[in-house]
Design brief:
The complex is a heterodimer of chains A (about 375) and B (about 400). With about 375 residues, chain A is an alpha/beta fold. Chain A has 7 helices and 17 strands. In chain A, about 25% of the residues lie in helices and about 30% in strands. In chain A, strand 14 and strand 15 form a beta hairpin. In chain A, helix 1 crosses helix 6. The chains are: A alpha/beta (about 375), B alpha/beta (about 400).
Chain lengths: ~375, ~400
């Protein structure tokens, strides 16, 4: 097969490309330039799109012995991922830009272009497994290394996308991959792992949002106790407040019972941030929109598990799709805590990814939950 | 470059002449710093000075006017900064620098730097749709306040679209007001006739690896009576304008290459322009909507003989490049930034094209090793490549995007 290997400059995608070559494929490496100011060096930090990363990817391609190019997708990335991220936060939701990037960039813009240019598949360094039955659909499964499993951020991929994807690392542990990189003489073997959000270089999401959205973009407001309605403090714009957040609330005095307070709700219009004790974060009923299914819409209620955040735990659940196919209801048998609208709920049947939806609301329906 | 590469990127770098390799490698075996006073030093110095004389003969300048540098970028920086500082030191009113808007980055970036850090007022003058300097704009700009002009810089020929610039006109206008003219002739030497004295320019940039010599060596030819503020200070080599131990082997190879390239220029131009015309005609047979950028008049006073720069509507240049590269055919999309991200060419933008047209173009440049077989290999590959690139362009929304930049 002719394979396009997306190479971030990190160790995972470099080893993935090398394995694709070893499997006998005709591999071409590309680095996606996603930042609009690729000149910026970020010392000590790891993200996508720096000159340093581009160079690391190029050197890995040299070592593997494959052609290498840089594709500029910065405009697409800005429109589809960064602006969406800002809009979601402005609306009080907590988006996951990695899923968005996989859905709109890596396995859409890049894959479409690759197919048009005559490639058969795009290979990445994601930790996930693809299993193809005889004449059956391609199934997406969790990686064997549970600590590195990235099937969650791939839960947006459709059958068409999966059929043209390749994840050569799904059967390996991270330590094996680093050792293999070392054996292969790849300079990036000991390069640190990347940040969660590549375009926020220092990891300070709240600071980044404040800078991008500007003062006044989000209303200032009160921090209000969930039970008494008492105003406990104020904030100058709900930048980066996330449901379930405990730190950085800057409430002057402790709760009467001395227990920590958490963000329970964010009202984007009034700016009111409701806080309260941990148990108030517990939910057992989730509603989702924008479902994406790996192999068609499930016809009956599905008894499986859901994962509600990257590297989060699994919850046993019953998942039901509305007759229109537009909405999803997830009844959690194992309640969850701190679930924010905007996050993705990825549905699993065992290790197999069934699909995903974007959480629109979460609530507690059972007293015992 | 492997044996079977179809190399159509001579404007980026052209293969060394075997004679230049021989001249260079012979010197690599010899010991001696040309600045040393003993016999070994004198022997090396002799090679350097003979090389200087060879280059002077080939370019119509005096040996003392040849300042060896590390290449085109250094020569351009030395000319622009060195002349700007010297001229302004003589008269503080001289703060303006006039240049065409299609100069190479080795000229544009020093000018931007001078504007940002040294208070230079840089005026980038317009070009016409063929990429040729608007001479009237230069005249207007000069005449507006001639005493404030430090220098004029106008490339001999454009590296992307191959348009030969009206250097003689620029020299006449500038000299009328006593303003010196620098020209970046990196693409011109060996391709079209270049005579320093006859042209009247005051400073001229050339580099070895574009004329069949080695990488990492070049020269600034600059009139002796012109002050140039040095950029590198040290041992005082190259009449104190450019300190640094002189690279005897590279200079020996450089001189041999310039000598051969200039001696063969006329014959080369006839052969290569015929090949280029054939390449353009055959490509347009295969891809009828491909169109040639730059000057359609292929006379040597209009267009570089080896340059074919074409726009392929609906295709992204980097898709075309990648698909051709996969078939062993080397060409260029124009300028690239340091991360390797293709930017729309400032040259095509200056010629009035939009960002999308600028990004859907390729430069094929022929040189002394090019053959008809190279042209036919490209012609044989182009139709399916363009078809694929167009499909990829559609997939990427190319041609429909509201902001192609």
């Amino acid at each position: 097969m002719r394979v396009l290997a997306a190479m971030s400059g990190g160790v995972d995608s470099a080893v993935a490309a090398a394995r694709a070559v070893e499997a006998g494929h005709d591999v071409t490496g590309i680095h996606l330039a996603l930042s609009r100011n690729p000149q910026s060096y970020r010392t000590g930090a790891r993200g996508c799109c720096t000159i340093e990363d581009s160079n690391d990817a190029r050197r890995a391609a040299d070592a593997i012995g494959i052609p290498f190019y840089v594709w500029d997708l910065s405009d697409r990335f800005h429109e589809d991922v960064v602006e969406d991220f800002l809009a979601e936060y402005s609306s009080g939701r907590t988006p996951n830009p990695c899923l968005r990037c996989n859905e709109k960039i890596k396995f859409a813009a890049v894959l479409d272009r690759a197919i048009a240019l005559g490639f058969d598949a795009v290979a990445t360094g994601h930790y996930a497994r693809l299993v193809t039955g005889e004449d059956g659909p391609v199934e997406l499964h969790r990686a064997v290394d549970p600590g590195k499993d990235q099937s969650y951020v791939l839960g947006v991929l459709t059958q068409e996308q999966l059929a043209h994807s390749m994840f050569p690392l799904g059967g390996s542990a991270k330590t094996e991959v680093r050792d293999e990189a070392e054996r292969r003489g790849l300079q990036v073997a000991r390069k640190p792992d990347s940040h969660d959000i590549c375009f926020i270089s220092d990891g300070d999401t709240a600071g980044w949002l404040r800078e991008k959205l500007g003062p006044g973009a989000l209303p200032s407001g009160d921090l209000v106790d969930h039970a008494s309605g008492e105003v406990l403090g104020s904030h100058d714009g709900a930048f980066g407040f996330t449901i379930g957040q405990r730190k950085g609330l800057r409430i002057g005095r402790p709760a009467d019972d001395g227990r920590p307070r958490y963000v329970l709700d964010i009202e984007p219009v009034s700016g009111t941030v409701t806080v309260g004790p941990r148990e108030e974060l517990t939910v057992d009923h989730i509603e989702g929109i924008r479902p994406r299914w790996c192999d068609g819409v499930p016809t009956a209620s599905l008894h499986g598990t859901v994962q509600l955040r990257a590297h989060g735990e699994e919850h046993r659940a019953v998942v039901t799709v509305s007759p229109s196919g537009d909405d999803v209801v997830v009844e959690l048998l194992d309640p969850a805590q701190g679930i924010a609208p905007g996050q993705a709920a990825v549905v699993y049947d065992g290790t197999r990814v069934v699909g995903s939806c974007t959480i629109s609301s979460a609530s507690r329906t059972r007293a015992d939950a | 470059m492997t044996e079977d590469t179809v190399y159509l990127d001579h404007a980026a770098s052209t293969p060394m002449y075997p004679e230049a390799v021989a001249a260079m490698t012979e010197q690599l075996t010899h010991l001696g710093n040309p600045s040393s006073l003993h016999a070994s030093g004198r022997a090396a110095r002799r090679v350097v000075e003979e090389s200087r004389e060879t280059i002077a003969r080939a370019l119509g300048c005096r040996p003392g006017e040849v300042v060896f540098t590390s290449g085109g970028t250094e020569s351009d920086n030395l000319a622009l900064k060195g002349l700007f500082w010297a001229r302004r030191a003589q008269d503080p009113r001289r703060t303006r620098i006039l240049a065409s808007s299609v100069e190479h980055h080795a000229v544009l970036d020093p000018l931007h730097w001078l504007a940002e850090h040294e208070g230079a007022e840089v005026e980038l003058l317009p070009v016409d749709a063929l990429g040729r300097l608007d001479v009237a704009a230069l005249r207007d700009s000069l005449e507006r306040d001639p005493d404030s002009v430090a220098l004029v810089s106008l490339m001999w020929a454009n590296n992307e679209v191959g348009t030969v610039q009206p250097v003689a006109d620029a020299v006449a206008l500038a000299h009328h007001h006593g303003v010196p003219v620098h020209t970046d002739a990196v693409q011109a030497v060996g391709q079209v006739p270049v005579d320093f004295a006859a042209s009247g320019v005051d400073a001229l940039t050339l580099t070895a690896h574009k004329v069949g010599g080695p990488y990492g060596v070049g020269a600034l030819v600059v009139r002796r009576d012109l002050d140039v503020t040095p950029q590198l200070h040290g041992g005082g080599q190259e009449r104190d304008i450019r300190s640094g131990t002189i690279d005897t082997p590279a200079i020996a190879g450089f001189a041999r290459a310039v000598e051969l390239a200039v001696a063969r220029q006329a014959e080369h131009a006839v052969r290569v322009s015929a090949l280029r015309d054939r390449l353009v005609a055959r490509l347009q047979e295969k891809v009828p909507d491909a169109h040639l950028n730059g000057d359609p008049d292929t006379g040597l006073d209009h267009r570089l003989p080896g340059n074919a720069h074409l726009t392929f509507p609906g295709c992204e240049g980097d898709s075309l490049l990648m698909l051709l590269d996969a078939r062993g055919i080397a060409c260029s999309t124009g300028s690239a930034c340091s991360a390797g991200v293709p930017q729309p060419s400032h040259v095509l933008l200056a010629m009035g094209r939009d960002a999308e047209q600028a990004r859907s173009s390729l430069r094929f440049s022929l040189g002394h090793t090019s053959t008809e077989a190279d042209v036919e290999a490209l012609v044989g590959a182009i139709a399916p490549v363009v078809e694929r690139a167009r499909a990829a362009g559609v997939a990427a929304g190319f041609g429909t995007s509201k902001k192609a930049g």
